[in-house]
Amino acid sequence: MAVRPTLETVAQEAGVSIPTVSQVIRGTGRISEKTREKVLKAAKKLHYIPDGRAAAMRSGENREIGFVINQIANPFNAEVMSGVVELLEAEGYLVSILDTGDDAARQERHLEAFIRNGRGGLLWVPAQDTPERTFDLLRVQAIPTVTFMRPAGERYDHVGVRNAVATETATSHLADLGHHHIAYLGGTVMTLVRQRRILGYERVMKARNLGAPIVWPSIDTKLAGLEALRDLRQSHPEVTAIVCNGDMVALGACLGLQKAGLVPGRDLSVIGFDDIADAALATPALTTMAISPQKLGRKLAQVLLARIREPDMPTTVSEVSARLVIRDTTGPVPAGGTGD
Amino acid sequence: MAVRPTLETVAQEAGVSIPTVSQVIRGTGRISEKTREKVLKAAKKLHYIPDGRAAAMRSGENREIGFVINQIANPFNAEVMSGVVELLEAEGYLVSILDTGDDAARQERHLEAFIRNGRGGLLWVPAQDTPERTFDLLRVQAIPTVTFMRPAGERYDHVGVRNAVATETATSHLADLGHHHIAYLGGTVMTLVRQRRILGYERVMKARNLGAPIVWPSIDTKLAGLEALRDLRQSHPEVTAIVCNGDMVALGACLGLQKAGLVPGRDLSVIGFDDIADAALATPALTTMAISPQKLGRKLAQVLLARIREPDMPTTVSEVSARLVIRDTTGPVPAGGTGD
DNA sequence: GAAGAAAGATAGAACGATCTACCGAAGGAT
DNA sequence: ATCCTTCGGTAGATCGTTCTATCTTTCTTC
Q: Which of A105, A338, B100, B262 is the most buried (most CB within 10 A)?
């Protein structure tokens, strides 16, 4: 089987020295047009592709970026990733993706593997229960890092969403429709993100003098949302509207309502978070807080590039706003409902 | 900022030579218990993580695997990936993922980037219109490669599904329910996979003397499936059942039926392919040809490992069978329907 | 035509690891 | 006491690239 060509192979073929070939390939230094063509021809003939690892080793520059994410199958994440890849690829970077499944141990193994194999930068959604040790690991290695969605103090640059403002908007929308007993559904661990979202929800509940806040946990899948809704309704039959921690849970809740013979938006209002593709396609279509994944992805890439270019600048925080998209799962309080 | 520790740093700290440290870290050679402990202590103190690229360069062994996939957001793919990662990770490999979006140009850039940055093996779902040149690129570099789902002749090992058998099963199931006018919905380009699936469908249509085969194209999203169903029903109102190229299209078709006020499984039978998580959760729950993504993922990993260990053995083909899962979207021909 | 500058190419070290070969010390047999 | 073996560890070359320094040749300019 063919052995991979190197600078030396190409140099021999072209009848020049190794550094000359290197310069031609990278377009640096002073090279005459004649030798340039000679070298390019040889390189093409041999299907030469430079060894990025050897280059990175010598030059210290590393054009491979790692994206460590909590759930690769989440369609929202997928769109963010595609935004990131598009922009970084144009700058000559390779973005390779790892899935932690929100498991801290697996995350640490992954991060270590990334460090071991050399990454010039890291985009990171920290797993829910990331221990301090993992952050240390990364700091020692001095890799430019940007956290996404879940901030990690002021250690790294961060790109995320104005969560508290978003749930304020969502809860106000429900209050405007006349709802008093509004629950918050979704999430399990009290991450900073969830904390901020619940804060926005509770602020409106208090400010507008609505019922006592009800926070009901659920993991972030449709199936879990379906089950959680059932339990929530049993414990709190007075609830007429729910603000959800994510679209998957919200869609699950809608399924749960339908299974119970109820109509989302008429018998009980549901509002999601993210605006994934399924939100608009579901019947009834889901009212939700939309965030633009492409926008987030681009922002993420920009922040990382800035950090790579200027490793010593103070860390930054970039937040984008969510937008209320009213569809069919929110409506006025049902006639028989408790208007109090 | 801290500079990354190397073998030399650790060697100095421990008061031994560089090769000694290397041997301790890798657990090779003869090392006394005393120096071993000394070295490990120093390595731990400095948070030493070996540079896999330098190691790979010298030893020729590369423990980083690339997974080049057509659609990262597809939940079926996500489950396959997690199966692959689990097994390869246990063997000490790092699996990093790239999304081609089924775009041949992007795919070629990605593959080249993988080669440039050194991958010890490749798992690959070739994009739909992959040119011959791309296959050449890979062969020249002599990287162990396994194709997934979409075979590429006998060039590489392959892991896939018994597609023709699966659609035979699906179509027979509909025929058993009394359907005569059965359409095949989904896919656009005539890939080998689609060809095999359509072959199975057509074989049953012919063998059981049913209506003329109708193949209707659609890309693989819910939205497209919804629209395609509408068009299909307009052109072929006699159709009472459809076999779909994938669950996403099938779910889209069900949505389309519901939008038209019809009930999937009663007014028109729909059968999907893949059994993604949503298939069981949809209302009505989707009848589908289930394939176990974990099983496929493990198989994929095993085949790649075998190829890495034995680069010169003849290429293999491994196929797993799909299993008919009957849920609520298939039923007998409706009363007013054309029983012919 | 001589000195200086610029252009074009190259030699050799370096990056961080691993591999091969070798070396000194300790232990055992004769 | 000498030789041989085994054990524990090290020196130096090497992987494919880039960097620094240098070398030769040609072109300007007065």
A: B100
Closest nucleotide relative to residue A51's CA, C1' based = D16
Residues A143 and A285 in one domain: no
CATH number for the domain spanning A183: value is 3.40.50.2300
Interval A56-84: pLDDT, tens: 999 988 999 999 999 888 888 988 999 99
* DSSP conformational letter for A332: S
The shortest CB-CB distance from A140 to any of B47, B89, B223 is to B47
Residue A304 token pair: 């990382």
Report the distance separating Cα A98 and Cα B64, nearest Å.
12
Q: Which nucleotide is nearest to B4 (CA to C1')?
A: C16
- Most distant CA atoms of chain B, gap in Å: 90
- Rounded to 5 degrees, what are φ and ψ at B189? -75, 145
* Residue range B284-319, pLDDT digits in tens: 999 999 999 989 999 999 999 999 998 889 999 999
Whether residue A94 and residue B81 make contact (CB cut-off 8 A), yes or no, is no
On whether both B169 and B281 belong to a single domain, the answer is yes
Domain range enclosing B145: 63-160+293-320
User: Is the CB of A50 less than 8 angstroms away from the CB of B116?
Assistant: yes
Q: Are residues A154 and A107 in the same domain?
A: yes
Distance (Å, whole) CA A264 – CA B21: 65
Residue listed under structure tokens 């509002």? A271
pLDDT of residue B337: 47
CA distance B86 to B93: 10
**By the 8 A CB rule, do B286 and B329 touch?**
yes
Question: Contact, B73 vs B221, CB < 8 A?
Answer: no
**Average pLDDT of the segment spanning B24-42:** 91
